Amino acid sequence: MPELPEVETTVRGLRPHCLDQRLAKIEIFQPRLRWPIPDAIRQLTDARIESIERRAKYILMQTSKGYMIWHLGMSGSMRILDAADPSPAHEHVKLHFSNGQSLRYIDPRRFGALLFSDGDPLQHKLIATLGPEPLSDDFNTDYLQQQCKKRATAIKQVIMDAHCVVGIGNIYACESLFLSGINPKTRANRIRKVRLQRLVDSIKQVLAQAILQGGTTLQDFTRTDGQPGYFAQSLNVYGNQGECPNCARPVKRFTQAQRSTYYCSRCQR
DNA sequence: AAAGACACCTGTCCGC
DNA sequence: TGCGGACAGGTGTCTT
């Protein structure tokens, strides 16, 4: 489910409710997520939440006794509810706060994760080797060109590779390629610099706009207050079984690396 | 090193 | 209605 804008939306929604809260109680209903929830998480009882940051699609929750590292996988979401409110379906973790509120982690498919780090979470094995943030200056035309130079595979797979650049999943990859007029199948090492420049610009634009709209809700993504994100109405090609909004030709769909790719064969070359 | 297939899991939708 | 199959926002791991 969640790509960078959805994770960023989640982090922003969490902060006002979670910062400075003491973890009065930690309930784990289903420890079997993508990896088993480590025992160390239970030791965070009575710790205080000091900061919440995002790196790639990971949520880094700093407490006075170590970090919770969350990943929402394909179907994960977080809700802030009164601690007395009933559990939504597929609620796997419940953090009770000292003020009577609670954070619920909900994840039907259980591809998400809750990990622990007692040091710098950026040094965590899963995080340390990731590529730059797409909205940072480190992600620029020169960098992307350097990455593409050594890749003969399709450009869509390159921009979805978190070791190249983080945060771009299937939706925003399709949308960015549409905006920049690039065919998703194009081999990365055959794209000229001026077009990579357009792709970098499109990625930044799409992600920034999606964050402003609270992310994309297709099925189960909700913000921490239960509201949907509104970027779905801005999608040009993803999930579009009708016409290209630019040229009115049918949007095409095909499978690429086991993922659906949507594009316009006229507008994207 | 790069590329591709596969794994994990549940829910929903569509055609028969 | 029921059933089988395809599909869904991610990504680590294994094999080639």
Explain the overall architecture.
- Helix content is 24%, strand content 22%.
- By secondary structure, it is of the alpha+beta class.
- It folds into 2 domains: 4-128, N-terminal domain of MutM-like DNA repair proteins; 141-263, Helicase, Ruva Protein, domain 3, CATH 1.10.8.
- A 4-stranded antiparallel β-sheet has the order 1-6-7-5, with helices on one face.
- Strand 9 and strand 10 (259-263) form a beta hairpin.
- Helix 1 (4-18) runs parallel beside helix 6, helix 3 packs across helix 6 and helix 5 packs across helix 6.
- The longest helix has 20 residues, at 193-212.
- It is globular.
- The two termini are 28 Å apart.
- The model has no long low-confidence stretch (mean pLDDT 96).
- The chain binds a DNA duplex (16 and 16 nucleotides) through residues 1-3, 6, 32, 34, 57, 71-75, 90, 107-112, 126, 150-153, 157, 160, 162, 169-172, 215-216, 218-221, 238, 257-260.
